[in-house]
Write a structure and sequence with these properties.
The protein has 2 helices and 6 strands, in the order βββαβαββ. The protein has 124 residues and is α+β, with helices and mostly antiparallel strands.
């Protein structure tokens, strides 16, 4: 059975989706954009935006009783591949040991004009 995971420590969904859902011990975290849940604003620059995205993912993982060690797959979406190196440096701070499988893509646009969006899959 599907369980919805929701926390006020990550931004509210900006559409008809949940922050995360859990099925059979697998947690599917929706793509997180760099919205600060306290202010509703997006910071400037790829480093600050990636940091905010990772904090949003952390909040959702914590709500599920998990942490970054539980993440097995991430998909990173960038508005410009020129930001890949800077995004990767921030991302790597959270996965410095046994990082998950990952894909990274450049896309035409991201919601709210964000520079980065990351979705994750974690397991119990």
């Amino acid at each position: 059975m599907k369980k919805i995971i929701n926390t006020d420590k990550a931004p509210k969904a900006i559409g008809p989706y949940s922050q995360a859902t859990e099925v059979n011990g697998i947690i599917f975290i929706s793509g997180q954009v760099p919205v600060n849940p306290l202010t509703g604003t997006i910071p400037e620059g790829i480093v600050a935006q990636t940091e905010q995205v990772m904090q949003n993912i952390k909040a959702i993982l914590n709500e599920a009783g998990l942490d970054f060690e539980n993440v097995v797959k991430s998909t990173c979406l960038l508005s410009d591949m020129a930001n890949f190196k800077a995004m990767n440096e921030v991302y790597g701070k959270y996965y410095n040991v046994n990082p998950p499988a990952r894909a990274a893509f450049a896309v035409k646009d991201l919601p709210l004009g964000a520079l980065v969006e990351i979705e994750s899959i974690a397991v119990r």
